Amino acid sequence: MALTKQERRFRIKKRIRKIVSGTADRPRLNVFRSNKQIYAQLVDDLAGTTLLSVSSLDKDITAATGTKSEKAGLVGKALAEKAAAAGIIDVVFDRNGYLYHGRVKQLADAAREGGLKF
């Protein structure tokens, strides 16, 4: 029997998370994508804490008009600004089982343009 989309994503996610782990010096940039919104957070896996997070539900991003991909770019840019203010430059990218295209790629590219290195 074929896998559902969600089962396939969870398999890919487990395969990625075996390798990718965040520390306080180099946190993991985790991306979650729902049908309408996109969320990104920097996670320290050793301490089990979220260092900072940004989503398309934040007031300044919600006020902006545009497509979901454009808002994903704004989320990436806002995340990079917050990370720079917190003194974080190097991160490890965790696409969370999603394919690297569309909104996930837009967020990653905008975060790189904002100054994050991964």
Automatic annotation (TrEMBL):
Alphabetical list of Gene3D superfamilies matching this protein: 3.30.420.100
Pfam families: Ribosomal_L18p
Record bears the keyword Transport: no
Any one of the GO BP annotations: translation
InterPro entries: Ribosomal_L18 (IPR057268), Ribosomal_uL18_bac-type (IPR004389), Ribosomal_uL18_bac/plant/anim (IPR005484)
Domain of life of the source: Bacteria
Record keywords, A-Z: Ribonucleoprotein, Ribosomal protein, RNA-binding, rRNA-binding
Subunit structure, as described in the record: Part of the 50S ribosomal subunit; part of the 5S rRNA/L5/L18/L25 subcomplex. Contacts the 5S and 23S rRNAs.
Annotated function: This is one of the proteins that bind and probably mediate the attachment of the 5S RNA into the large ribosomal subunit, where it forms part of the central protuberance.
HAMAP family referenced in this protein's UniProt entry, alphabetically: Ribosomal_uL18_B
Protein name, entry field: Large ribosomal subunit protein uL18
Lineage: Bacteria, Pseudomonadati, Bacteroidota, Bacteroidia, Marinilabiliales
